[in-house]
Amino acid sequence: QVISDFDMTLSRFGCNGRRCPTSHNILDTSRVISEDGKKKLKDLLHYYYPIEIDPHRTLEEKRPLMVEWWTKAHELLVQQKIHKGDIAQIVRESEAMLRDGFKEFFDQLHKNNVPLFIFSAGIGDILEEIIRQANVFYSNVNVVSNYMDFNDDGVLTHFRGPLIHTYNKNNTVLQGTGYFQQLSTRTNIILLGDSMGDLTMADGVPRVENILKIGFLNDKVEERRGKYLDSYDIVLESDETLDVVNGILRYILTE
To answer: What pTM does this model have?
Structure first.
């Protein structure tokens, strides 16, 4: 099975020298957010993002701060009275891009009945829409993420729990989903991530025999290289493609 992060892992980090948006960014900067809301969301990003990627802080220090960030951001979004019907258009108008080679990646997995589990601290409704608009939302794709709940009028009222942030992508938020139990025969895993928090995504898998961890090092490469090389089996620096992953899949699936 393949277990993957979404933002900046399956989606691109940058294009033509510009940063590509994450699923949160897509919503935060869209026309459905007021100017005041945009400013507040940007302030949160500027305060918390450096903490998220600070190699000198411990996970224990970071976790409560990430909960704080996500909670505040979600509360701000709820205040914006976002309409469910606007999501497809918001995604269409955004600069969201999946990595080059995404079609081969999704197609190969689907054709060979390999489950793809996307574990994301982003916004589930947005990232599902990105995959849907790319025409690769196949039956083997399963997503666990932060989903919005709408009232009968289609207006956002809250986010469904449990809250998933960068550093709790593990068993704690999968309790009761039973997803990995159903796949207990899938003991070989390819894990794709772009942060230290993604390394725990396979923690709920029973009886792991082989796990290949591939890390996309997108940002502050020099500063973070050592940590990534210690933690991931393969580290891809500033690579906006899925070429390496596709090559490995081709090799395994045609054995």
So the answer is: 0.94
Per residue in 36-45, pLDDT (tens digit) is 999 999 999 9
Where do the domains of the chain lie, and which CATH numbers do they carry? Answer: 2-254 (3.40.50.1000)
For residues 177 and 158, is the Cβ–Cβ distance under 8 A?
no
| Mean pLDDT computed over 168-180 | 82
pLDDT at 177 over 80: no
**What long-range pairs does 190-193 form, CB within 8 A, spacing at least 24?**
190/1, 190/2, 190/3, 190/214, 190/245, 190/248, 190/249, 191/2, 191/3, 191/4, 192/2, 192/3, 192/4, 192/5, 192/9, 192/10, 192/216, 192/245, 193/4, 193/5, 193/9, 193/232
Identify whether 5 is a catalytic site residue.
yes
Name the catalytic one among 7, 28, 125, 194: 7
Note whether 23 and 7 are within 8 A (CB). Answer: yes
